[in-house]
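Example record

One chain of 143 residues, shown exactly as stored in the release files.
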Amino acid sequence: MAHRKSPFFEELSHTADVAVRVRGRSLPELFEHAALAMFQLIAGGELERVPPLHEREVGVASLDLESLLVDWLTELLVLFATTGELVCRARVTALEETRLRASVWTGPPPFEPYEDIKAVTYHDLRVEQDEEGTWWATIVFDV
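Predicted structure tokens for this chain:
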């Protein structure tokens, strides 16, 4: 797979799986960007070609912030697996330490997905805020 970079995420070198480093100006934006980064990988960098046809509400609860990120992305993978539609927009409407509510917009891919992401892993998972207040996450996907 080619190394991909966007304004909000960068694909990292990883031996067997796919890893990304995502950033957001706020924690809700970090979660939105993490979702878009995952679907950008699935779409081979062509997510902008997916029409946002269906709005769906998503809610996730978890044990802690890192688990919430994994559960959020896993919920979106399940949505993709059951509908065949890619998430092309995401807006987090409520976020606490262990609960998230969001609206996502999905659409059918006008192409075959490029990357088969099987799972979101806890391997090397990090969620942190830097001194300037920017949030960062490192996420590894099982492919």
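Notes: The chain is about 25% helix and 35% strand.
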